[in-house]
Design brief:
single chain, mainly alpha, Arc Repressor Mutant, subunit A, two-stranded antiparallel sheet, 10 helices, 6 strands, elongated
Length: 265
């Protein structure tokens, strides 16, 4: 009886297309891992994060997946692996949680998800540093001068301590004094002299009253200077004696001719 020859393996199924990728698929009965397209086709994850996430999901349960352990198994260095793990955490595919054992020892438990978990996303984004609020624009120099003047009044009398809110509220009134040509020292003198003997219960209201009631007027505009009218030279005249040209308001003789007439007389 002739032994039956083993049959040849069935050819792999192929799907042909005119362009793009052609998938050549074989039936896998062992040694394979099911990875979701949500991980492999995630639009925000880097290729390194997708590859490391897929590799972690292919490992047996209980395998160490810390940064150093993965660096011993993969060609990527620790820096790229750490960055990839942070990406996976940020988008809900990876979670590292601290857990205290009954013995008191603190261990890190790692969870790898084949689909993103919203709770993991929220937990990963919670410790991320929030962007700093932009610094408030600096006040103009005149406004800062008024602020400094008001804040420094307590050096002249301890009863004139103002809150920051009071300084901001009174600064425009002080700026008015400065804009009217009053020196800073004169403003301070107007606010700190002849203070009442009794305690000043409301220093901001007291100073607001002084700033309003003693506000000096605007400086008068300078008088226009008298501009001298330029003198026009006398017109030229023809001397009646020598017929030379000379300047004079009236026709007649030049100076030399007049002098000779006077000597002859």
């Amino acid at each position: 009886m002739t032994a039956q020859q083993p049959s040849a393996p069935a050819p792999a199924k192929t799907r042909h297309s005119h362009s793009g990728v052609t998938h050549v698929k074989e039936r896998l009965d062992a040694n394979f891992t099911v990875v979701s397209n949500e991980l492999l086709q995630h639009p925000e994850l880097s290729s390194t994060a997708k590859g490391i996430g897929s590799y972690i999901q292919s490992l047996p349960e209980g395998s160490p997946v810390g940064i150093k352990a993965l660096a011993e198994q993969l060609p990527e260095g620790e820096i790229r692996i750490a960055s990839a793990l942070r990406e996976l955490e940020r988008y809900g595919f990876h979670l590292r949680a601290k857990e205290r054992l009954p013995s008191g020892q603190v261990v890190t438990r790692t969870f790898s998800y084949n689909r993103p978990r919203p709770a993991v996303v929220e937990a990963a984004r919670a410790p991320e540093p929030k962007p700093k609020a932009p610094a408030p624009p600096r006040a103009p120099r005149a406004a800062r001068k008024a602020d400094d003047l008001l804040a420094g009044l307590r050096a002249y009398d301890s009863r004139l301590v103002l809150s920051e809110r009071d300084v901001l509220r009174l600064a425009p009134a002080v700026s008015q004094w400065l804009e009217r040509g009053v020196p800073s020292s004169a403003v301070v003198r107007a606010l700190t002299t002849d203070l009442p003997q009794d305690p000043v219960k409301h220093p901001a209201a007291f100073l607001a009253h002084r700033l309003a009631s003693q506000l000096p007027p605007h400086l008068p505009a300078p008088a226009p200077r008298d501009t001298p009218t330029p003198a026009h030279p006398d017109p030229f005249q023809t001397c009646e004696g020598c017929e030379r040209a000379f300047r004079s308001a009236r026709p007649g003789r030049c100076r030399d001719c007049r002098a000779r007439s006077e000597r002859a007389a």
